[in-house]
Amino acid sequence: PVQGDVTRAYGARVGAGPAAQGVTLRGAPGSAVRAPAAAEVAYADTFRGYGHVVILNIAGGYSVVLTGLD
User: Fold this and answer.
1) Separation of alpha carbons 54 and 36, rounded Å
2) Which terminus of the chain has fewer CB atoms gathered within 10 Å of its CB, N or C?
3) For residue 66, how many other CB atoms are within 10 A of its CB?
4) What angle do CA 40, 66, 53 make, to 5 degrees?
């Protein structure tokens, strides 16, 4: 979705917290973020605690949640 560094891998844990259910990437400020596949935008707005959020529905019943898009 964006070119950058992986800052948290899928399944990684912070302390005794739950395993990450996604991958966290850090791109340069102002970087373009792209959908990983053809998608329909299901939600695009702010969401408390997550900043700007975009939820994409893609083929096969999958969803992609992009957060921290500030």
Assistant:
1) 13
2) C
3) 20
4) 85
Give residues with Cβ within 8 angstroms of 60, minimum separation 6: none
* Contact assessment for residue 56 and residue 38, using Cβ atoms and an 8 Å cutoff: no
Q: Which tokens sit at 53?
A: 């959020």
pTM here is 0.76
Is 38 in contact with 17 (CB distance < 8 Å)?
Answer: no
Helix (H) or strand (E) holding 51: strand 51-58
Q: How far apart (Å, rounded) are the C-alpha atoms in residues 40 and 4?
A: 24
- For residues 28 and 47, give the distance between their C-alpha atoms in angstroms, rounded to a whole number: 22
Q: How far apart are CA 28 and CA 39, in angstroms?
A: 24
Residue range 37-62, pLDDT digits in tens = 999 999 999 998 889 999 999 999 99
